[in-house]
Amino acid sequence: MKPSPRPARPTPRASGSLAAQPLCPDPAQPLPAVFLKTPSWHANVFQKRIQRVDSRVRAGDWVAVYYGERELLGYGFYNPRSEIAVRMISTGDALPDETYFERLLASAVELRRNTLQLDAVTDAYRVVHAESDGFPGLVIDRFGDTLSAEAFSVGMFQRGEALLALLAKQLGTTHTIVQPSPQSLAQEGFLSEPLASPELPRQVTISEFGTRFRVRFEGGHKTGFFCDQRDNRRLLTQFCSEKSVLDLCCYTGGFAVQAKKLGNAAEVVGVDIDEEPLALARENANLNQVRVKFVQADAFAYMRDMLQLGRQYDVVILDPPKLIRSRAELEEGTRKHFDLNRLAMQLVKPGGLLLSCTCAGLLPGEEFLRLLYNASRQAGPLARPATATTTARHAPRGMQVLFRTGAAADHPVGAHCPETEYLHAEWMRKM
User: Fold this and answer.
1) pLDDT tens, 310-362?
2) 3-class SS of residue 296
3) With 0-12 CB in 10 A as exposed, 13-18 as middle and 19+ as buried, what is 262?
4) 105 phi and psi angles, rounded to 5 deg
5) What angle do CA 56, 59, 62 make, to 5 degrees?
6) Among candidates 129, 106, 4, which has minimal Cα distance to 408?
7) All domains of the chain, ordered by start, with CATH?
């Protein structure tokens, strides 16, 4: 299966309308106004809620958001090309200033460093998780001495470097990179090269529970490494001792390397269709002096080949890239999840473990669980589809859900914005 599109090579600056904009609105200048049909305090204001907009407003501009003609709701970034027309930055009368953003960033840092005490176990974690931390349309990860941001809105992209500069002062980091999301053209109507600090290294080496991984910023997915699966990777190792492990859609080998390094698995196979992440996965295995077999193959084709060979594994991880990026992709993406899981379940030995994940926020957890239930009914025994005449000896084996997890706690879910819960991980045992 094809991986997500990749961002372009980092470059020092963007041009034209995507040039950096002032972080804060000028209190001496009146802001363009957006008027809503109904009051809303959600971080994301959709086009259908808007009654009218000042004609002088441009994509990425600060706007004052009103209900009716007089009730000021707050301030945000406007984009007429996006379905999410306004990303609300603050509510109330007070204009956001640099101190406001410094306080928001300090709160985000305090959660990761003091409450979660992540510095004790890793130097790679999410510092800003979009709406959950008060920055709709922006995520920022720390990788050692580098801050890597992904912007989902044109307004945040134009101010990403300024925000990273403030955050770097609080964390003591040196390098930065801001990348537009892979869907920036389709969803926000803009294209740009990433914005990199002058001395940005090509790669860094980070540590996670003592295991080392290389993170490359050129051509990587998202911000460069999937910090959201950190706790799930460690939890998986409890089930791997002397077991055979198959990591499907392994990317740069996070689950595979941890299964061998911390989990002491007897055999680990990682599969991905993309050559470059696999090359980095092999480097990560060598970096930790563990032996993992990495295979470049489409996950569907590889699973079918293994079924034909009668191969099964004690532990199977299925963590595909995002298969549903918009409501238009919901039906096709759901079908892909179903087909992937139906095959993966057949590769699990009786009594074995399947960890199945989805990072498609448009597929709710309960819907994903229902999909897995239906997939288990159709999975059947190895290479023998169930039929109306199937005997009890060959009846399909069921899957028991042991527990359910999500993203690590440095990816908090905003109570005001439940959409920030996007990763669902189902841990299942084959009966």
Assistant:
1) 999 999 999 999 898 888 899 999 999 999 999 999 999 999 999 999 998 88
2) strand
3) buried
4) -65, -40
5) 75
6) 129
7) 32-91 (2.30.130.10), 98-201 (3.30.750.80), 226-430 (3.40.50.150)
For the chain, the first-to-last Cα distance in angstroms comes to: 28
- Count of CB atoms situated within 10 Å of the CB of 277: 23
The mean predicted confidence, pLDDT, of the chain is 90
DSSP letters, 57-114, are --TT-EEEEEETTTEEEEEEEE-TTSSEEEEEEEESSSPP-HHHHHHHHHHHHHIIII
Nearest to 142 by CA among 163, 167, 121: 167
What is the distance between the alpha carbons of residues 134 and 87, in angstroms, rounded to a whole number? 10
Q: Where are the alpha helices (DSSP H) in 365-404?
A: 365-379
Cβ burial, residue 281 (10 Å; 0-12/13-18/19+): buried
Can you tell me the distance from the alpha carbon of 178 to that of 355, in angstroms, rounded to the nearest whole number? 32
From the number of C-beta atoms within 10 Å of its C-beta (0-12, 13-18, 19+), residue 153 rates as buried
| Cβ–Cβ under 8 Å, residues 359 and 420 | no
Q: How far is CA 396 from CA 118, 145, 251, 300, 312, in A?
A: 43, 51, 31, 20, 15
Range from 112-121, 122-131, 189-198, 284-293 carrying the lowest mean pLDDT: 189-198
pLDDT in tens, 135-147: 999 999 999 999 9
* The pTM of the whole model exceeds 0.85: yes
For residue 3, the 8-state DSSP code is P
